[in-house]
Amino acid sequence: MVRTSLSVAAVLLMTACSFGPNGNPPAMPGPAHYGADPQPTQTVPAQGVTQQFVAGAKAVPQWWRLFESEQLNALVDEGLHNSPTLAAADKSLTAAREQLRAQIGSNMLPTIDAGGQASRQRALAIPEIGPNTFLYNVFVGQLQAQYTFDIFGASRLANAALASRVNVQAYQFDAARRALAANIVTAAISAAMLDAQVQTTERLVTLANEQARDTQRRYDLGAVPHGDLLNAQQNAASLAASLPGARQQLLTTRHALAVLLGRTPDQAPAPLDLASLHVPQQVPVSVPSDLLKARPDIQAADATLKAAAADVGVATAQMFPSLTLNASMGQGGFSWPVALSGAGAIWSIGASLSQPIFHGGALFAQRRAALASYEAATSQYKQTVLAAFQNVADTLAALDHDAQSLDAANIAAHAAQRSFDETSARYRLGAVPVAASRSSEQQYRNARLDEIRYTGARLNDTAALFQAMGNPPPSGDEQSASAAGAGVVQ
């Protein structure tokens, strides 16, 4: 009977995969280019740097090192090493992998348990043939084994579903690592940008206060009308009012960066020098087919789809027969000498076969629910891919427009600086009053504020594009080694 059951199980296991969808992701359109406009090959030169979009290039794993800042590299390394959020996600992934191992061991291998029993019992007797009660001891020790044959693949499919969900957590952990690195980079860039803006604004406030004091003196002498004084005072007060908000924004960004690094806010790192951050000249732009394999969010959606397909197979397999084999052996008796002797040997072996007949429609409803969940996972996969395409398209367009805005702001700042230098030289020669030099510097500082803002935007959008590209897909050997080391079923 056992040999026959094993033979039947081997045949039926070959066909168990037909119980549900294969779990392959749906075919997605391959766009000729990501955005509505054709993809540019490079940006306009801004601050002497032309960024080139290298089509078909692989994603860069540690892309933040391309900004050529050792301080930035140290911050990212510290955050990846010390982040409590990342550590919690890592431990959750480890727990999920151990749960997978436990489930595979419990439903794919026989269970063997050892048990022992020693008891003293009092039982009623038949009065007509003996005493009214019997007092006796029972000593039993035995090994019990049980194994359920996975004839229709219910256990195998359940393991595959759980393995895919573990893969989801693995991809989510990878996404969390990359998101943490990107958040540290953007926070550091934003802090550097805000620090430069605060310094420039402080100089503008100083210039405005000097202008207000100079206008007050001239008004006292009757050289200017009262309206000029009021305008100067209003300008100085407006600039002074904007400074606390800028400082607060800088402190908030520094505090957020400290938490990302695993520090307390009072240990927030000093802002980086914005000039020390260099824009990478070459930015990889993966083709859409590679993007599907590189982005962890798409990989997680793919793993979710495979888990849903396996759930359909499980729900289908539960409608078919189940065969379980039980066996036990041991020693027993009403006294220790008998229980330990050859006369106390006990054993049993048996098999049970069950076939669901009527469950009130529950099994059919469970299968329909699994199919609906699979269809939902298919739609979610499509949406994830479309959102990834949009993410790349938006960042590509943003980088192109950032370069254009930065180029114009850079030209304006250089022109304003030259004008300020010439006016300052004329003031030193006594050709123009100090108010003219001060006004020229104010124009330069305002133009510099725009240049700082667009510089930070270009750096942040470059980081966003690197993040949007995901990780380079591993080779076949690397993927197999990684799966074996992680204990995750692919």
Description:
This protein has 490 residues and is an alpha+beta fold. It has a single domain (33-124, 132-485), classed as Up-down Bundle (Outer membrane efflux proteins (OEP)). The chain contains eleven helices and six strands. It has helices spanning 2-14, 70-82, 84-108, 154-220, 226-260, 288-294, 296-317, 336-340, 362-428, 434-469, 476-486; strands spanning 52-55, 111-124, 133-149, 282-285, 322-333, 345-354. Helix 3 (84-108) packs antiparallel against helix 4. The chain is elongated and about 135 Å long. It starts with a helix and ends with a helix.
Name its key features.
4-stranded antiparallel beta sheet, Outer membrane efflux proteins (OEP), single chain, elongated, alpha+beta, 490 residues, two-stranded parallel ribbon
